[in-house]
Amino acid sequence: MLPELKITQLRHFVWVAELKGFHAAAEKAHRTQPAISLSIRDLENKLGESLFEKRNAKTAKTELTPFGQHFLPKAKELIAHHDRIAEDMTLLAEHKTGHLRLASVPSIASQVLPELLLEFVAEAPELHVSFFDDNSDAVLKMVENQQVDFGIANLFHEHEHSDKTFTPIWEDHIGVVCPQDHPLAQQKEVHWKALREHRHISNGTSRLLEDTEARSLLGHSQFYVSNMISLVAMLEAGFGVTTLPRYAFPKESNTLTFVPLVTPEVIRRIGIVKLTNKSLTPPAQALVDFILSKSAKQ
User: Fold this and answer.
1) Do 203 and 249 fall into the same domain?
2) The whole model's pTM is what?
3) What is the domain extent for residue 11?
């Protein structure tokens, strides 16, 4: 049966060998000399060989036996390996290292997360982050397939996702987006029936209208565009109007306008989505806690 070597005893052995004495090793270990002697004796019993020559009363130096000389580099290697693992796990637990994977809907990914992530990783320069942005359905699929630690998305029908935990954070009001020279752009607010007079372009977030009185708009949409860049290009070209959450409205646009939709008033709830029965990695849990703490202060 192989001996079970204790890291503490290995450290005591190395210190006695390097400092050439039990007294010096005891001071370094903040232990008594008899305690160090007992630790070394127990280690020798486990190994079945003496590590140090019998001490000469006339000299204070402690010398290694040939077995001890052979064991010294092995002991140092074991200690170094132990310390590397302990350090790695400590850093991981403190979210200062490791690999964090998350996915988010584009609106939060572009307008909210950059500032949050910049502050979060400032304390974890060795943390690797993989960041994906896509529509809510794609984000949920990545969560389901465990391609990411957690997602930031909207659950259109929460009762259909019993395998997931949803923590709402942001509320996003729906509005009409159109060119600045469009007739609707002059309105302070819009009733959904006013949209029937204009060409409607639906997109991934148009599903938010499904359970409202404005659902008939979806059946009359001439175009469906899933990509935000393409959608903005079509709106700017005058193809029609669309509905979007305010977070999804391109703030940098000088040609488009956001007009609140008041009838019906539709609110998109965005939050953190994770698998119900799966624990997050320490870095992922730390980021979730960080996001929640920041949102609580707003």
Assistant:
1) yes
2) 0.68
3) 7-93
